[in-house]
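Lab meeting notes turned into a lecture example. A postdoc, R.K., suggested we walk through two folding results consecutively so the class can see how the record format repeats. The first protein's sequence and structure tokens come next.
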Amino acid sequence: MAWTTRSTRTVYENRWIHVREDEVTGPHGDGIYGVVRMQHPAVFVVALDERERVCFVELERYTTGRSLEVPAGGSDGEDPLHAAKRELLEETGVTASDWSSLGRMNALNGIADAPEYVFLARGLTMTDAAVSQREEGIDAVRWIPFAEALELVASGEVSDGETIGALALAGIRLGRFR
């Protein structure tokens, strides 16, 4: 049985998210469904240097605490590749000469409409242009060998779902899971 939306109302909205409450009829009958819609897609960057190390940022998240993640952020309505290049530079001071799209993901698809684009960045150059690390609460940029990054996922030290998904897409593209 398909879902039917009988009515919808906006509960909250800001420049990043839109929250609505829908009266629905679904497989189990009538009910209320809360949905968070991101105002713009997010981007995630798996930046891999010549030594096969992945670039991570370490920061404190208000919602979940300490986190080790790949560089990421909102697209702010711009082209996802352009946004990925901007986020990598802003968060890490790194630029890349070789960019590949790894695919699209959906965050929290049980409660959210939150599209995400994942990119692989290679041919890296370090600059001094990490302009918003302090603004975004980034405490450190860490370079971790790809295999060790997967071990950190397995141990739970890397627990950000989008980072795990981005690493999986990169691992598939790079042939690391065969």
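The second example is placed directly after the first for contrast:
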Amino acid sequence: MALTDFDLVLFGGGGDLSMRKLLPALFNRERCNDLPATARIICVGRHEWNREAFLKEIDDNARPHVTGSVDAPAWQRFCDKLVYVMLDAMHADSYEALAKALRPDGPDARVTRVFYLATPPSLFSHICQHLAASGLATPTSRVVLEKPLGRDLASARQINAEVGRVFEESQIFRIDHYLGKETVQNLLALRFGNVLFEPLWRREWISDVQITIAESLGVGNRIGYYDTSGALRDMLQNHLLQLLCIVAMEPPTSATPNAVRDEKLKVLRSLKRFTPQLLTQNIVRGQYRSGHVNGIAVPGYRKEPNANQNSRTETFVAIKAEIETWRWAGVPFYLRTGKRMADQLAEIVVRFKGIPHSIFAQHNSSFQPNSLIIRLQPDEGLQLNLMAKTPGDGMRLRPVELELDFRETFKMPRMDAYERLLLDVLRGQLTLFMRSDELEAAWEWVEPILDHWEQEGDDPLPYTAGTWGPAAASALIGRDGLQWREESLPDL
């Protein structure tokens, strides 16, 4: 669907997210001729840049993050769309300059107006209030909110209420870039575009589901933010729970935004609540110590530059979750995320139950359960693990993999997550964005964990950088007679 003309205002337009992700994503759409010729990208910030200085910043800090070669004509077209406005988000007077830069917006205007708040959430309310007071937030404009959307349930509700006083729910796009990944889209296609898996997608046939987002990197220069957030707030409350919802949701009546988000909300509200006993048994948190990643020595979290030497911030969390519905009763969902782990990967593993009886000269225990692996990064694809006969005399079975690599199968340029989500914002398509009740339901489930950690006062369990986390994470899943995928791979 072709885009209409737009004014996209990037608050935090000179910041890290804009330079690394947003502007390169918009350039990729420009060189594919998706952006209207008269569209404008208005970057706002506190730097006193003239146009020449601003374009130099873009060239130095955004251009290196563009994938592939940058052809000069496309880059020039993109730069022609860029406007810089100096603005102090906290002061109402600053918004006069922004008002002068914007084109008319309204029912009769042909320009879509979008405000993207790539800022700390503490500024969301102030920005929205000043946009309203300046007459810039119109009934047809849209606002995009970057995570973190609150630190707890109360702050999330406060953000929803304050932004909701200015914008209707249909105008608010709460972004989670994991939902823009190609493989997440293919998970929806796999489940609801095929008849093959639906009869098996339930407790009678599925043993367990594992969702992992592992990073080999440390916190880097984000320690100021990360030490007030931690892995639970930064990754699990949003990315991992959204992936869980897509795996576990019932088939929606259609692909319309509210039909899909209604089903995701039902999953969040069906998550088993934590009792004091479950808070102790079903959750592991850790913090990396010094070690080696890819053969390179790396410091522990408390030895990172500017780190708090006594920090209790978790860099790893593993949780056993349960969904109290007829489809999923008794099926454990294991969620895991961490920094400085053995590999950089994001994947969903749906493991099916074992065969009830072997007719071959092999014991049941030698059969690897069938599993479906949905890889989100670094390489996007699907893998189906089956048992097959080895060549030669006799009937001996071993695991084999049926592989679907999206890059090999579809020989066409691929959009990254931010490209897709930015296009959806500009088109007004809300399906891949969280609704306010989804956000609050996720925080309702997560908040008892935060409260428990605060009350118990214990340090996170240490784990060596370059490993898969604390040994307690293996014990968590091992109590159910299961293993994390990397622990269960056969030696062939």
